[in-house]
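Page 37, continued from 36.
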């Protein structure tokens, strides 16, 4: 069976010059598919190893620590092995841009921690970085083939997703969102037992340690969170290795398993995940009762709740010694607080850091000059100072992320909040 898969990979490789993108998550299925690709390419004569192959892995910036260090080591070994044997394979670790990180979305924008019905994270943290990478490459590639370790027996939904898309004569399916990309799933019919059999009986081609992978699975007693390339595969947030912050699952069995087998770092992280669950529940009073679009209903986390959570997160970072949030993320959080409902005066994050550590955060803005301009504009336009600050902050936020789509709607929403506020003050009904 393995020989058949290797033969089919070599046929696909030699068929044309289309580059490959191979998904790797550090889990068993993707470890197997990357191993098979290495084996297949190495078995070709050196002059035929011309296809460009990119192994891509996403780091959501909130990955389980034991997985992060293992994955980085594996990628380094893959690159070294490719160089040594002239395989033309390069491994990349992709991350979401800082302004889309988990903490910037929760603490900055006030998104509630994700659940099954509002799982905003997979697209931003996992799918977008891969799509961006592929789109960037497609310009000169033209077309690409994405090779994935998806398997039918992994779950009913995975089998359904594989069955729902027809294959062409070369066993390729069209990618849902990237029109010039095709998907190949060479191990889709293997059982979990066969995957482990391959991994434990074959040495890893780049010198990685499959026994360590097996041990990680035993300790975590969970499945894997594979590389996600589109929304058609319900891939993560299902008791699998994923983000340690994942609130899509009721219990994070992978993290609990790691703690039970001695990874003490998971204790504080699991406790923080419980805190996130409490902040998500509208019953606990941490959420605005007006949605972002102005409709009544549970909306974003209140600004006070975001501040409390940031304070707790910084305490976790201090106590655990783990790098849970970066300085760049803190700057983005302040940027979003400046345009939030009930915005602070632009010093909220710096004050929390000061209370926690006695440090200050560098800030280059000239507050006095800004205040004079604010005064003049609020008088001229008849809007509140808070509204003006939110409008300015919103424009800054968009300009820092180099985008404009959606800005007019967001500015309009801030002006509607201003109107709603005035109507409430005057005892008028909301129009
Ligand atoms: S593992 Fe959980 S938190 Fe992370 S992207 Fe998937 S669903 Fe979201």
């Amino acid at each position: 069976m393995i020989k058949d898969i290797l033969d089919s990979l070599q046929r696909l490789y030699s068929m044309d010059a289309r580059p490959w993108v191979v998904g790797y998550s550090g889990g068993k299925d993707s470890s197997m598919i990357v191993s098979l690709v290495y084996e297949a390419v190495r078995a070709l004569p050196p002059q035929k190893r011309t296809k460009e192959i990119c192994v891509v892995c996403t780091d959501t910036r909130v990955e389980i620590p034991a997985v992060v260090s293992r994955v980085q080591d594996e990628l380094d070994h893959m690159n070294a092995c490719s160089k040594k044997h002239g395989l033309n394979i390069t491994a990349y670790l992709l991350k979401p841009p800082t302004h889309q990180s988990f903490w910037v979305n929760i603490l900055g924008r006030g998104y509630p921690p994700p659940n099954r019905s509002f799982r905003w994270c997979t697209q931003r943290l996992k799918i977008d970085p891969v799509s961006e990478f592929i789109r960037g490459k497609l310009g000169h590639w033209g077309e690409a083939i994405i090779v994935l370790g998806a398997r039918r027996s992994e779950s009913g939904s995975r089998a359904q997703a594989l069955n729902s898309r027809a294959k062409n004569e070369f066993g390729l399916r069209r990618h849902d969102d990237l029109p010039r990309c095709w998907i190949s799933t060479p191990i889709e019919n293997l059982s979990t037992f066969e995957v482990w059999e391959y991994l434990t009986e074959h040495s890893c081609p780049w010198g990685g340690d499959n026994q360590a992978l097996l041990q990680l699975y035993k300790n975590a007693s969970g499945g894997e969170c594979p590389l996600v390339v589109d929304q058609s595969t319900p891939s993560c947030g299902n008791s699998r290795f994923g983000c340690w912050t994942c609130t899509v699952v009721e219990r994070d069995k992978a993290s609990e398993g790691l703690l039970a087998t001695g990874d003490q770092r998971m204790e504080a992280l699991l406790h923080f995940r419980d805190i996130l669950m409490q902040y998500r529940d509208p019953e606990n009073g941490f959420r605005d009762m007006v949605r972002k679009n102005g409709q009544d209903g549970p909306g974003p986390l209140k600004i006070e709740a975001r501040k409390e959570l940031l304070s707790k997160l910084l305490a976790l970072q201090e106590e655990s010694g783990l790098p849970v949030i970066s300085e760049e993320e803190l700057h983005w959080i302040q940027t979003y607080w400046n345009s939030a409902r009930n915005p602070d005066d632009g010093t909220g994050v710096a004050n929390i850091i000061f209370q926690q550590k006695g440090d200050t955060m560098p800030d280059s803005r000239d507050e006095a000059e800004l205040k004079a301009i604010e005064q003049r504009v609020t008088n001229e336009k008849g809007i509140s100072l808070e509204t003006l600050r939110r409008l300015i902050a919103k424009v800054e936020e968009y300009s820092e992320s180099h985008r404009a789509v959606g800005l007019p709607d967001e500015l309009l929403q801030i002006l509607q909040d201003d109107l709603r506020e005035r109507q409430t003050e005057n005892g008028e009904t909301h129009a």
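Residues 60, 114, 119, 121-122, 125-126, 225, 236-237, 242-243, 245-246, 248 surround iron/sulfur cluster (CB under 6 Å). Flag for discussion at group meeting. The mean pLDDT is 88.
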